[in-house]
Protein: ERAP1-like C-terminal domain-containing protein
Organism: Cardiocondyla obscurior
Amino acid sequence: MNATRYLKQESNHLPWRAFLNGLSYISNRFEQQKFQQNYNKYILDLLSNIYNKIGFSDDDEEEHLNKLNREMILQWACKLNKAECVKTSKTMFNDWRNNNTLKIPRDARSAVYCTAIKNGTKEDWDFLWKQYVQTNFASEKKIIINALGCSIDEKVLQNYLEEAIKKKVIKHDPASIRRQDVAAVFTSVYSAGSIGVDVTLKFLVTNTENLYEYFGKWDDVADLFVNLAPYISTTDQRDTLENYINENMASFPKPIRQKFTSALTTANGNLLWFKDNGPKISQWILRVQETEEKEKPEAEPDSSTRIESLNIVLTSLIALMSYFLSHL
């Protein structure tokens, strides 16, 4: 874990991408846990320098990796509720709503859209849904689909999932969710946070027949459970899944029963991983936070040591993530 502290001085895209990709699994485990606030605070502290550096505005002259950095860092900062990130995102979104000529910078859209929907109103959601219907750009539709699932209004999310599997009256109705976007709709909801996991899980266990009618294949229905399982982080969520599987397993076609068993195994593994590793990570973070103010800031590495440091941190991060994931 000590290797992660180096990142506070790092601005290169590659170590940040390696770290944040691995961090996704750990962050999901901390959802709805009592240590979540301290965990989020620690990650935001690591992000603070690079967040202040990248800003929200695109720069046509900057390198491509810097653009990727902006998109990635803003998403994480806003997801972890960095106050300035949330405030700026809401302001930019509201300005866009009031004047659609004020376009949101492309590299900031994923963060801004999601944050505005998470912290906004039903009217904000309806506005962004209208943009989904009207745009002809597949890349923009994808960003919007992901953002619409960021709402924390359970009714809004429920309606969103219902809309996703609604039978189309008109084959190419522009006001409906495209067939190829349906899986992304479900992912957008359960990947946004614990509320989304609860809503999706409840929807799946109470709409199994409707889902089968829409997809026409049990494999597709089972895949929704399998893909949701890695995001289950609480005992209540696991119990809901387990009870549903136990009560319905005999009615599932034999070829897909293994998928439901796999989903439950994953959910149990999530809880076991946090039981074994959550307290260790939390205690380490608390120790760092208690002593950090007493430590003097380390000097930024010069160019002669930067490549060596980058190799060290990448190796350390990969080893760290491999260790945690091996304990599933």
Notes: The radius of gyration is 21 Å. The chain is about 70% helix and 0% strand.
